[in-house]
Specification:
Elements lengths: L1 H30 L2 H27 L18 H21 L7 H7 L4 H18 L3 H4 L5 H28 L1 H33 L17 H8 L5 E4 L8 E4 H18 L4 H12 L3 H23 L8 H21 L5 H29 L7 H32 L1 H9 L1
Antiparallel strand pairs: 1-2
Helix pairs in contact: 1-8, 1-11, 1-13, 2-13, 3-13, 3-15, 4-5, 5-10, 5-12, 5-13, 7-8, 7-10, 7-12, 8-14, 9-11, 10-11, 11-12, 13-15, 14-15
Amino acid sequence: MIKALKSMGFFLMSASRAHAKWELEISNTIFNDRKRIIILCLLIIPILFGGLAIADQVVDILPETLGGKKAYSPAFFTPGIFIASILIGLGAGLITGAIGAGGGFIIAPALMSAGIKGILAVGTDLFHIFAKAIMGSVIHKKLGNISIRLALLFLVGSIGGATGGGVINRMLYEINPVLSDTFITTIYVVMLGILGSYSLIDFLGARNAGKSSDFHGGKQEGVEMGTLPQKIQSVRIPPMITFDENLIPGGRQISAVFLIACGALVGFFAAIMGVGGGFLTFPIFVYVLGVSSMTTVGTDIFQIIFTAGYSSISQYAIYGFIFYTMAIGMLLGSLIGIQVGAMTTKVVNGITIRGFYAMAVLAGFVNRAFALPGKLAEMEIIPLSKQITSILDKIGNWSFFIVISVFAIWVISTFIKNIKILRGEEEA
C-alpha cells in the first residue's frame, strides 16, 4: 500500500513538473512577442476601464452557444471579482514559476473557497488554460518532436473522456449542486493529499541529504523503459503504431487501444478537475506508454490545445459554466506570477523552494479536506451542525489563503530585493 502511494506521488509530481515547464514556455512565448502582448491588452483593457455597465452589456450579447449570462453564478464583471481573479492567478503563477511544479492545482480550490460553484470553477479554469494555450502556442517550434499518429489517437480518447467527464459533472450538478461540489472536492482531497505527502517526504529527504537542487531540470525519460511500458508494448493488438523512429533504430510500437484508453483517462480528469490535460499527459506517455520525453513534450503541446478547448467550450461554455471575466483575470495574474517566480529561482535556495511547495500543496489539501464535512452534512450523509461546518470552513480557508499569501509575499519581496542582481544577470 505504501509503495503504491509513493508511486502515485511520484507520478503526480512528474505531472506537476511537466505542466509547469509547459506554463513557463507559454508565458515566455507571450511576453517575448509584441503582437501577443497587444492581444492580451485588448482582452484586459475593456474589463479594467469599461466599468460594470459596459461589461454587463458585453456578456448580455454573448451568443447562447457561449453561455452568456446563463451561468449558475454571476458571469459578469465586478471590480472585486476581477481583482480576486488576478490574485488567484498570481498565486498560481508564482508557485509554477518559482517552484517549477504546477501551481494550477490551487485555482479550483481557491475559486471554490471564494464561493464559486465547483462546476463553474472547473469550467473557468479550463477556459483559462485554453486561452493561455492558444495565445502562447509554440506548436511550430515543436513539430519535429510531434508524433502525429500518437497525438491523433490520443485525442480520439481524450475527447471521449472529456465528454464523459463533462456529462458526469453536469449530471451531478442537475441532481444536486452540493453533490457536484462534494464530488469535485473529494477528487482534490485525494490528489492533493497524495501529492502533498510525497512533496513533504521529498523536501525532508532533500534537507537531510543537504541537496540544494530545485525542481527545474530533469533527465530525458523514456529512452530506457521500465517494466510497465515494456509489458504494454509487448501486447500486439492491431493496429500497431510506430513512434520514436528518430531516437531508436526502427522505432517502437504500441497498440492504438492503449493510446485511446490513456487519452480517455486524461480527457476525463481534465473535464472533471479543470487541469487541462497536460497535467497527466507527460507521466502517462513516459512512465506508462514508454514514449521518449522529447516526443512527449511536442505531442503534449499539440494535444492540450484541443483537449482544453473541447472540454471548456463543448462541456461547460455552452451550458453557461464559464466565468469569462475571472478567466481573463487569472490569465493575466498567472502570466505575471510565472515570470516573477521564474526569475526569483536564480537567487533562492532549492531546498527552501521544496519546502514552500510542500506547504502550498498541503494547504490546498487542508482547504478541501475541511470543506468536505460541510458538503457531506448538507447532503445529510453525516450529522454535523452548521456552526461546526462553518468553523471547519473558516479554518480551511484561512490556512489556505495565509500559506499562499505568505509564499507570494516572500517571492515578490525576494524578487524586489534582488532586482539589481537579476537585472545584472539579464544584461550579462
